[in-house]
Design brief:
Length: 439
């Protein structure tokens, strides 16, 4: 976003968000017979036998109130009818810059203490729970219950539907992320290596690597077929066939999760039409998003569409229905259509209903992370994929489905890795709002 993060409209939306959150917590605590809840932001973990710490992001329910992803060792006490008490760990230190809070209007809603120690605040008499990365022993020393599942489940459910403020934050995260994707594409087409693409992405999206909501997936050529490819080659390949970039941004705590795939100058002529076909399928699936839609059913539509795309592009010589029935489409796309998105990239409560009852994914699709019926206020990713993954295709070479697959064409595409197209979409009362800006 531009200066919108300090605008009066954003401040007003955030105040409304906090008022609604105070009411929601009050209702949940009353239902469970609790007088309050203490939220711990968490702390980074040191590497073994070292004084360096791993990257850190605060506990989601702590961020739901504060939006501060990097506040470590801090505490937030919520009690119905009282101002939230925020204790920020800010010791005197010449090795590190102490934590600071932004000078923004939302701070007026909190009672803030800048503490030199990371000890939790003393709790008043009553029934309290402590949530976060804390021990049972610490909770008991405070006279509180540690991470009760009924409270965690109820608060997770409150995060499923986003406020107008949260939608605005997610939109801002998408705008910053897309600026990075545009720069990354230019770098790739100019002959850059995976590391060059990542550095271009970070520069244009204006973030450091440790602030990313997840490690960027920068897959050139066959690396695009490793779903969570985790390296960055420093030397470009001899031939630039393809780039798959899955990279996001965190804005006021909220995450963007965008994927794009581009054909390189050395791509096989069959690759670009596959990208165009998958993009067209993704657009059709996005257009189907609305309240009341069964996400599992939408995932099944993904495989029907993939079967049609494989047939249209000559990768299979059977009907789309046969491609699905024989498991061909799942070999080409082993992951789910998408997931819930918010303060976490794979946000909470995706596989339970509104009452917390489990909604397991179908046996044929164990990787599907979202199995609920869609509701207004949800934000989901839509990310169909099509990959050439040798270990998944190998069983098909030996089975009855082998005769229905054009193996010479598959082999030509093997060093292109794969294709994934991912947008972030908010469900509203009349349908949907795609938060991901155009390329």
């Amino acid at each position: 976003m531009t200066g919108a993060d300090t605008s009066s409209s954003t401040a007003s939306l955030q105040r409304d968000h906090l008022v609604a959150l105070q009411q929601a917590y009050g209702d949940v605590l009353a239902q469970l017979g609790l007088d309050g809840v203490l939220l711990y932001s968490g702390h980074p973990r040191p590497h073994f036998a070292d004084d360096q710490e791993a990257s850190f992001a605060a506990f989601g329910h702590f961020m739901h109130w504060t939006g501060q992803a990097d506040l470590a060792r801090s505490w937030l006490l919520i009690r119905p009818g009282e101002r939230p008490r925020l204790k920020v760990h800010a010791p005197d230190d010449f090795w590190h810059l102490p934590a600071r809070l932004p000078d923004e209007a939302w701070m007026e809603a909190f009672e803030v203490e800048m503490g030199r120690d990371d000890a939790p605040p003393t709790l008043p008499a009553g029934r309290f729970a402590v949530l976060g990365d804390v021990s049972v022993a610490l909770a008991e020393s405070l006279g509180a219950t540690c991470n009760p599942t009924d409270l965690l489940g109820a608060l997770d459910e409150r995060r499923v539907r986003k406020s107008d403020y949260e939608i605005q934050c997610l939109r801002g995260a998408n705008q910053q992320a897309m600026a990075g994707h545009r720069a990354a594409r230019r770098t790739f087409l100019a002959g850059g290596a995976e590391l060059d693409v990542q550095l271009a992405y970070l520069g244009a999206s204006r973030q450091r690597e440790t602030a990313l909501p997840y490690a960027s997936i920068v897959g050139v050529n066959a690396h695009g077929g490793v779903l969570h490819y985790q390296h960055y080659d420093a030397v470009p390949p001899a031939r630039q066939r393809s780039l798959l970039l899955d990279a996001g941004h965190r804005y006021r705590g909220y995450c963007a999760d965008i994927t794009r795939t581009w054909a390189g100058p050395d791509a096989d002529p069959a690759f670009a039409p596959l990208i165009q076909g998958l993009r067209a399928l993704q657009i059709r699936l996005v257009e189907a998003l609305a309240p009341g839609v069964d996400y599992v059913g939408l995932h099944q539509r993904l495989h029907q569409g993939l079967g049609q795309l494989l047939a249209d592009q000559g990768l299979v010589h059977c009907s789309p229905e046969a491609a699905v029935a024989q498991g061909i489409t799942r070999a080409f796309c082993p992951h789910g259509l998408g997931h819930s998105l918010g303060l976490q990239v794979h946000d909470v409560a995706g596989r339970v209903d509104g009452a917390g009852r489990p909604l397991p994914p179908p046996e044929t699709d164990p990787a599907l992370r979202l199995t609920r019926e869609l509701e207004a206020g949800m934000v989901v990713t839509m990310e169909p994929g099509l990959y050439v993954i040798p270990m998944l295709l190998a069983p098909l070479r030996e089975g009855t489905a082998s005769r229905d697959i054009d193996w010479p064409l598959v082999n030509r595409l093997a060093d292109h890795g794969g294709i994934r197209i991912e947008d972030n979409v908010a469900i509203n009362s009349t349908g949907h709002d795609n938060l991901t800006p155009p390329e």
